[in-house]
Design brief:
Blueprint: E1 15-21, E2 27-39, E3 43-48, E4 52-55, E5 60-62, E6 67-72, E7 77-84, E8 87-95, E9 99-100, E10 105-116, E11 122-125, H1 127-137, H2 141-160, H3 167-188
């Protein structure tokens, strides 16, 4: 009997692609060259720094600042901590838990976003887009319920400065990224 070896997931220092999709399966956005900082059974932490992003309409742009990314296999959100001169801003996507294959880290974007400013102010974004797409693509009631529950979990994390929302978390992972980049430069010499 032949047993297939499980494919190795990404490891620290690997560079991956991230792809977000919409509920109907259409490609929404692609990020190239995200560096993996940590993987565990349920989570991946990565970093984008001047990363090429391609929109579904073909428009391309490059991220402006370093951003630490947090993806989880059980939570219906992902978190982007953008390291800016005036402090850390967060952009949180309400989205399916991620999956990973040989091509990319993938998830379904469910439109709703929570933005957190450096002063802690929070805004729920794109509720109108969520309502439009929910009707257009017939989001199941189960998904609507899950997303509402996970908005509450996300807001609790923000208020408690849990995980990615703590300064220590950002400092540790950004320092790790800088160390890995220095190692790459040494290896190239």
């Amino acid at each position: 009997m032949i047993v297939d070896k499980p494919s190795r997931g990404p490891r620290e220092g690997d560079v991956i692609t991230i792809k977000s999709y919409k509920h109907d399966g259409s490609l929404h956005r692609t990020w190239r060259d995200t560096m993996v900082l940590k993987t565990s059974e349920n989570a991946i932490i990565g970093l984008n720094d001047h990363t090429l992003v391609t929109e579904d309409n073909g428009r391309r742009w490059v991220t402006r600042e370093p951003a630490i990314l947090y993806f989880h296999k059980k939570y219906w959100f992902n978190i982007v901590a953008m390291i800016r001169d005036n402090g850390i801003s967060y952009y949180c996507n309400l989205a399916s838990p991620y999956t990973m294959d040989k091509e990319a880290l993938k998830y379904i974007d469910y439109d709703l976003d929570v933005k957190v400013f450096p002063d802690g102010e929070k805004h729920l974004l794109d509720a109108d887009e969520y309502a439009t797409h929910s009707k257009k693509w017939h989001y199941p009631k189960e998904i609507d319920s899950i997303l509402k529950d996970h908005v509450k979990i996300l807001v609790d994390w923000i208020n408690e400065e849990k995980g990615p929302f703590s300064q220590g978390y950002v400092d540790v992972w950004y320092s790790r990224y800088q160390y890995l980049m220095q190692q790459r430069l040494k290896d190239r010499r």
